[in-house]
């Protein structure tokens, strides 16, 4: 029997309305997109400003209580930053004991996007992107437990390059741990929206001989890649296999996805 695919429940916040055929609520799809994003944007309200704050941050999905949980299981989002950063202070002030457990913490919205191609159509109005985007809604709380904090920092570091935490100087110093704060976001809902395929021209443009004879149409695939490693001036170590394997896999997977998505 196959594994049941878990999905986030549809709510007024996360339901995709325009082009809902492109929507996905599957936990695995959403969590993979978050983990594959070098930067995630975190939005929250602050008491001293009429404008929502949006910060680019680094984060990874994980579960301290169930560290062996699959990427398609319910997970939390861990975010780290400097201890005195505004978001951590706002989160601490927003978390109170009288809050309901499922709504305890600072309400946040997290988003991330990957662009896989530029779609160039006959009309400017039919231009588009191939993309993968994701939005999560949840409640952020400050991680106070030292062991959970170390777990979160390991998950985040290994999200940059696999096994990177284990191959860095260990253990962290007291100053490093004290100067770094970690937020855990309990996810309430989320959704992804994915566009793949080629140009979708209108029928009247396809029948417009003048336009077809003068306008180039097609797909420009886009994929990020990691360049040749540049060691520090004081480096004395050969590039470890986890780094070289990561570069090879990252470049291969991104290129293959963008090219395959363009053909759909």
Automatic annotation (TrEMBL):
<dbReference type="InterPro" id="IPR024747">
    <property type="entry name" value="Pyridox_Oxase-rel"/>
</dbReference>
<dbReference type="Pfam" id="PF12900">
    <property type="entry name" value="Pyridox_ox_2"/>
</dbReference>
<protein>
    <recommendedName>
        <fullName>Flavin-nucleotide-binding protein</fullName>
    </recommendedName>
</protein>
<dbReference type="InterPro" id="IPR012349">
    <property type="entry name" value="Split_barrel_FMN-bd"/>
</dbReference>
